[in-house]
Amino acid sequence: MSSNKKYWKSVEELKENSSIVETLQQKEFAEEIPTDEFLGDKESLSNSSTTRRDFLKYVGFSTAAASLAACEGPVIKSIPYVVQPERIVPGIANYYASTIADGFDFASVLVKTREGRPIKIENNSLAKVKAGAGARVNASVLSLYDSKRVKRPMIDGQNVSWEEFDSKVSKGLESVTGEVVLLTQTFASPSTSKVIKEFSGKFGNARHVVYDTISEDAALDAFEGKYGQRALPNYDFSKAEVIVSVGADILGDWQGGGYDVGYAKSRIPKNGKMSRHIQFEANMTNSGAKADKRVPVKPSEQKAVLSALYSYIVGGSSNSKLSSKVDDAVVKAANQLRKSGSGAVVVSGIPDVDAQNLVLSINEALGSKVMDFANPRMTRQGNNKAVQQLVADMKSGKVGAILVAGVNPAYSLPNADEFVEAMKKVDFSLAFSMKEDETAKLCKYLAATPHYLEAWGDVQFTKEDFALVQPTIRPLFDTRQIQDSLLKWAGNDTSYYNFLKETWSSITWNDALHDGVFKATSPVEIGSDAAVAGAGTAATSSLDANASAGRLAKSEDSKGAMELVLYTKVSLGDGQQANNPWLQEMPDPITRTTWDNYLTMSRVDAEELGVENTTVSDGALNGSYVNLKVGDKVVKNVPVIIQPGQARGAVGLALGYGKKEGMQDEMKVGVNAFPLYQDFKSFQNVTIEKAGGMHEFACVQLQNTLAGRDDIIKETTLREFNTEEKEHWNKMPEVSYNHEEVPTNSDKADIWTSFDRTLGHHFNLSIDLNACTGCGACVIACHSENNVPVVGKEEVRKFRDMHWLRIDRYYSAEDTFKEEQEALENLAAFDTYSAVETASDENPEVAFQPVMCQHCNHAPCETVCPVAATSHGRQGQNQMIYNRCVGTRYCANNCPYKVRRFNWFNYAKNDEFDYHMNNDLGRMVLNPDVVVRSRGVMEKCSMCIQKTQKTILDAKRDGREVEDGEFHTACSAACDKGAMVFGDINNKESEIVKMKEDERMYHLLESLGTQPNVMYQVKVRNTNEV
Amino acid sequence: MSSHYEAPIREPLVIGDKTYHDISVEIAAPVLGKANKSWWIVFSIALVAFLWGIGCIVYTVSTGIGVWGLNKTIGWAWDITNFVWWVGIGHAGTLISAVLLLFRQKWRMAVNRSAEAMTIFAVFQAGLFPIIHMGRPWLAYWVLPIPNQFGSLWVNFNSPLLWDVFAISTYLSVSLVFWWTGLLPDFAMIRDKTTSPFQKKMYGILSFGWSGRVKDWQRFEEVSLVLAGLATPLVLSVHTIVSFDFATSVVPGWHSTIFPPYFVAGAIFSGFAMVQTLLIIMRKVSNLEDYITVLHIEYMNKVILLTGGIVSVAYITEYFIGWYSGSSYENYTYLSFGAATGPYWWAFWALITCNFIVPLTLWVKSLRRNIVWTFFVALIINIGMWFERFDIIVIDLSKGRTPSSWAMFSPTFVDIGVFIGTIGFFFVLFLLYARTFPVIAQAEVKTILKSSGEMYKRLRAEHGDDFNHAHGHVHVDNDPSAGEPAANEPDRDYLSGTSNEEEVDQSAQDALIDTELKRDMVDAMLARIGTFDPAVQTADKLQKLTDVGPLMEQKLHQLGVYTYNQISNMSLQDYEVLNTIIDSFGDRARRDDWATQAANLKNN
Question: I need a surface site. Which of A625, A655, A706, B109 has the fewest CB within 10 A?
């Protein structure tokens, strides 16, 4: 704005033509500056006090100051909501019930969101039917933030808009000659079935083929044959008294998994009773590890075992050719089954219709109340014959269009190369995918799909149990779920959300959405298009159990070849989440190996083959490579781990590894075992030859035995537990005080005056070694809750894993831990070392022990820190004050439990550790309540202090007392087995006090007098044989 | 003043015909002269190693401790091994200077200076490791109990690491002060000797204006004694406290009550080995064979034998008690069957061989006095003591209480680089020291020259204890302390630092008998009163006579008067002779009637 005001500088300006004014207009200064005069006069210059040095100083200083001023701190932009959403309060978590149904894992979950971001998956306690492995489901939240996700639809590898995509796809589909095929995962979703029907209706000839990456065909066929429905029997192991498993990893992914919850319930001794579990298996599995009696038998023998078992129970004749030892075990198992009657159950993982048929027959004969065939599981619908038929049809050019959803056949089909070839003959190919995986790369069209946390859906777990999937965040990318796409292409303009609501108009929508689960009857029949697939052959197969048994008993053995058992790990499962660093870094419960799959082999076989396992200078494990050959398929360079308890003549290999597309380089580990998965059978005859070179493993535990230390894992037998005094099987260690033995927990053994801990809360955590199945859900939950960094294979190999919670696994050095102790007492002192250091190869007993910070009341770590960076909390926690830590690592050295983890590097925002914490997307999963630790500081389990404080504050805000069961740590909340109980021991009514006073209670390394706030419950084995 | 008398059976501590002047010249030579080629070569190697070490440290601090080979189970390895190793090496210096001073061991004088220098430089290296081994070394000052304004909170006085902070810093400061105190007269000597104005100025500052007055000497002696008294407990305390890092923990193998004495013995063991290593080289390079003799080496070997013996007993005790406890947690400690046969068997046997077996050879006298062998053994002990600490730390940690966490350690190039860097740093300091400091405490050596110098011993053997060395054919310095207090000499300018040392020496050596006339008079007197034959007679205490003090006694001795018998024979005439020859004699003999007194004393 211009102003007309004039300001007079002096009265001179009033005069016209004033020379002064004129001069001033021309010049800045009225008078000449005497520069020449000043600088020219050497004398005055030399007299002046500003020397050249001063001048240089000023120049130097001002340059430095100027450049310093130019430096700017990083500007972090945080933009507040323009319109604050009603339900999102910063700092307050929102929970949504939802369901994961990725074709392999089906589970009801509770999703924790913070500021609109899902950050953690928890158990939905309202869900009665559970399925799916805990670790993978817990980790699935990180897959939402996978940087390798496809961000928008693509045609021929080019990004396009959905409008363009839709028009091209519609045009393409209309002009297709030949069949339109939908190749999908098991959705187990009534609404999706409806959508597919609608789509199918539009393109008259559409065929729906359901493909389960890990096949349960045999069980499905057997069930379908017997009960006329393509489903899987449901088992409630909590009702079991005797469990006989023939090759079924009931604590793993067997028949959809999720059976560990009920199993664990039956394993906790109550009123002197617990179930007895007998396991016949080839690989060492979690189930075998938990079994009271484990018999290692190779696959071909397993068939004989099952048929013999059938004979013994149903009373048929048995001409078992089993070895006397195995036969004896079978006879005893049969006796026990018979004795228990309806409390008994037989399960099997043999991929054979006859075997599965026998299982159903045996359980029927027993009248087992454990098996539920009336309300079977619907979470596996795949049909292998249909899939193979499809490949054949594609090859013959019958198929004009293929739409693939939720599966990756180009990677996971046993004949993937055939599929890849056949795809070339299909004119129209489209993949619904979150990743540019092997199959998506083959397809012309790639429809970017959202993660389940961004999608709507419904799931039918069993005949009458249903669940809803609801989005917990707006889609991060320009994605659209398959149902919406199919509806659109079918010409239906309703959104899938409305479609879903229509399907379920019979239920109270909001309640169901709130609970996540509901009971109903399915409005539509789900499953594949059996008629077209030419399935149902199972129904025509003989349902005569006797004939099955006969066929099974006669089934040829391996003719001297090795037998391969393909399995899935609790970490990676079928490999869908292979790009998830949490899962890659999760140690296998049995081998304690991360970032790999490998061939498990017995020592005898390994020695015969010249295969070896060696350790290098820092103790890390190396293993020889072998080449595997099944039929004409060869898988090269498979590393071998020598596995105690592995049945002789049998080897094991995990599926789900070796994926190469849509994967970050770091995650491309392991070998792809799917080519060996011939006929979708997990049992294969295999030829093994040794290959050159050694593989570097990343194991977190390499000492496999307890080295004779019997007070780390205490265990007893059910008989002793029932009949003997506590002192006999759970003796408190003693120390000498004035030449008198006093128990460690006595005041005399304590030189410290203790605080009054009765005020306020005092937290304790109890871990039941009987209930713990080693599943590892707690490990991932802890990662997720506490922002535990992923360090990568190389660092794990250097024993630098950051797990706050680990599940130790010990093998007995003799056949049993008891015998190990006896051997220790009888052997000459120097012989005991070799005797107790190496695990028994044949068939060791196994024990799992979750170990996290024990939160000692007399913590060895606290006294040694020079800066008091770790100190004791008022509520019993041993606290780690990261800000104060200078990183001397003395605390970690002095920790007898070795639970402290040091930040060797910066694990966040460091290109050397290019995992989720190195990108903006991945960092969205971080829990804002827990700080991300910088390098150079120690970290460890905090007993989830952020969770307990939240609970306390909530109660305080509501003006009430905290109720028992409200307090949780991430691990105790994740453990649906009830193996972990957390609570306040100052609340005398609480569950934790009962656990503390339980006779089975002991503390780890009690003789040290550290007085931990974590306690363990003695492991009881039911060795009672009939 | 220490007596001039020393049993002839004792070997001389200074060999060669050394005069006081020779000592000054020879000790000052490396400082005043130019470095030779081999010094430059060794210095360059050390400097390169040092710079490489700095590079490794910078890499560690900027990237993270992960560049070392440590892991979740083994939180300390080379870092603390090196720390304890260097602290241990630093032990010999204070023991030599403090404990041996209190025990009046004269042989310490040739080696104490370098041993103390070694101590200080070793403690520098040691002090480096606790700082750089921290995850966040820029916060290292948090371990100091400083007020909150500095961004620190109060420290945890329960922690042995904090005790370390105090122990090491106290040790370093006391050692430094002690060392410097001993250096003062020697710096002054160089100040006085040098012709370079720069050196004169520098050594003038370093010597804190030492003037050599009696008061200076007196205070010097007092302070030395007090500091020795202060430092002696430190010899025991520092490594005791370092051992608490382990002994107060709950780690099997660390938690051991014998650690404090065992660590102290081990530290002295390794410290002496390091002194041997360094001095065997230095005596050769700096031509100090006359001062650091085989005798010195043997003495030190005896200390090594003793402390090595203590250490060996400790090993056996540890092994036995570990086994005897019957605890399965003790089965894999660093001294156990489990360690001997386990994956670290080589480290176990390196320890046993280097610290137990090889030092046993020193029981053989010829090997103990064999310089090459000694050097070899010292090197082996240095290696062995490094392994001892490595074994304690790494083997014990590697097989801790929970077998699931058992792991092993292998060093990275950074681990090795940092260690080599400290060795380089140590030698850089030591080599600079050898070029700029008087490497032998010459002032102290001079005090024992007459009692323990080879030449004087020979003279005493030839001529007897009371031989007046002034009579000898060789030129011998008189005991400077026999002269006037130097400060009383009027023509001496201390501020300028110049001295007329030669003149002082001459004035001090003025014999009482300066003319032939006097000689005749004395001979005549001795003929009257009788002569003294040291071979058959013993000297009487003339000071018992009235008015005879040490000075007078000495003068009488110089005239050949030693016994009461001689005095009792004296007559007036003899008193006159004494009066003529001895200034200020007066007529005290007559007044006090020495003859009668002597006759009485003679008969008692």
Answer: A625
Nearest Cα of chain A lies from the Cα of B263 at a distance, in angstroms, of 19
Please check whether residue B508 is in contact with residue B480, taking contact to mean a CB–CB distance below 8 angstroms.
Answer: yes
- Closest residue of A to B405, CA-based? A701
Q: How far is the C-alpha of A871 from the C-alpha of A865, rounded, in Å?
A: 9
Count of domains in chain B?
A: 2
Chain B CB contacts of A615 below 8 Å: 343, 408
Please state whether A610 falls in left (phi above 0), alpha (psi between -120 and 50) or beta.
Answer: left
Q: Are residues B513 and B425 part of one domain?
A: no
Half-sphere exposure for B561 (CA within 13 Å, toward CB): 31
Domain presence at residue B232: yes
* Closest A-chain CA to B133: A888
CB distance A352 to A220 below 8 Å: no
Does residue B177 sit in the same domain as residue B56? yes
The SS3 assignment for A965 reads: coil
| Residue B80 contacts A, CB cutoff 8 Å | no
**Could you tell me if A565 and A650 are in contact, meaning their C-beta atoms sit under 8 angstroms apart?**
yes
Question: What are the φ and ψ backbone dihedral angles of A981, each rounded to 5 degrees?
Answer: -120, 130
Task: Check: CB of residue A773 under 8 Å from CB of residue A263.
Answer: yes
* Structural contact between residues A899 and A851, judged by C-beta atoms closer than 8 angstroms: yes
- B284 in a structural domain: yes
What is the arrangement of strands in the sheet containing A117-123, beginning at the earlier edge strand?
A: A93-101, A106-114, A117-123
Q: Are strands A593-594 and A698-699 parallel, antiparallel or unpaired?
A: antiparallel
**Are both B99 and B185 inside the same structural domain?**
yes
Contact flag A809-B66 (C-beta cutoff 8 Å): no
Could you count the other beta carbons within 10 Å of the beta carbon of residue B554? 15
**In chain B, residues 465-494 whose CB comes closer than 8 Å to chain A:** none
pLDDT band, residue A1013 (cuts 50/70/90): very high
pLDDT tens, residue by residue, A896-911: 999 999 999 999 999 9
Sequence-distant (6+) residues with CB within 8 A of A124 are A97, A108, A109, A110, A515, A516, A517
* A723 min Cα distance to partner chain B (Å): 29
Instruction: Please check whether residue A825 touches B, CB under 8 A.
Output: no
- 3-state SS, A542-603, equals CCCHHHHHHHHHHCCCCCCCEEEEEECCCCCCCCCCCCCHHHHCCCCCCCCEECCCCEEECH
Name the residue range of residue B332's domain. Answer: 18-144+154-451
Structure ipTM? 0.85
Whether chain A has a CB inside 8 Å of the CB on B328: the answer is yes
Residues B413 and B520 in one domain: no
Q: Are residues B411 and B338 in the same domain?
A: yes
CA distance A984 to A964: 8
Residue B397 included in any domain: yes
Of the candidates B417, B451, B485, which is a domain's last residue? Answer: B451
Say yes or no for a CB contact (<8 Å) between B136 and A886: yes
Q: Which residue is it, tokens 């001389």?
A: B12
What are the tens digits of pLDDT across the range B524-580? Answer: 888 888 887 777 777 788 877 777 777 777 778 877 788 888 888 888 888 877 877
CA distance A271 to A281: 30
Residue A616, chain B, CB below 8 Å: the answer is yes
CA A283/CA A672 separation, integer angstroms? 19
pLDDT, tens only, A665-678: 889 999 999 999 98
Residues of chain B positioned with their CB less than 8 A from the CB of A708: 328, 331
Strand-pairing partners, residue A95, are A112
Q: Would residue B486 count as lying in a domain?
A: no
B155: contact with A, CB 8 A cutoff: yes
Bridge partners (DSSP) of residue B245 are: none
Give yes or no: residues B522 and B446 share one domain. no
Angle of helix B160-193 relative to helix B108-132, nearest 10 degrees, comes to 140
